[in-house]
Write the structure tokens for this entry.
Amino acid sequence: MDLVIGFVFIVAAAAFVAAPFLTREASAEPMGPAPRGQLERQKLDAYSAIKEAEFDHRMGKLSDVDFAALREKYGAQALAAIAALDSAHTAHQRKLGEVRRPTRIAFCPTCGRGVPPRANFCPACGRSLKEAVA
């Protein structure tokens, strides 16, 4: 009788341990771009790993070949995170640019003279053009 109970416990424990390997999860697929915090963390982790590898190489724990391989691997991870952060930042800036476009004044509202691009003051009368936009 004890042998049967022990066998049932072993089968139940094996089924419990094997269950995650036998089921498919839909959440294992990437759901879209990673959040900014996760990308920052990935970048910092790659930097830390490179720093650790450099320290181990200087201490003689890593050969030149191993160090080059680790440096390449973690450098690629850091560059991927930086590129993703940069593209997210560019997309955010583009979205802001579509919402808020700068106003350009072609002529001074006071004297009517043409104003060069990016001028803050009228070259003829000296009036502030930023006040005219507001």
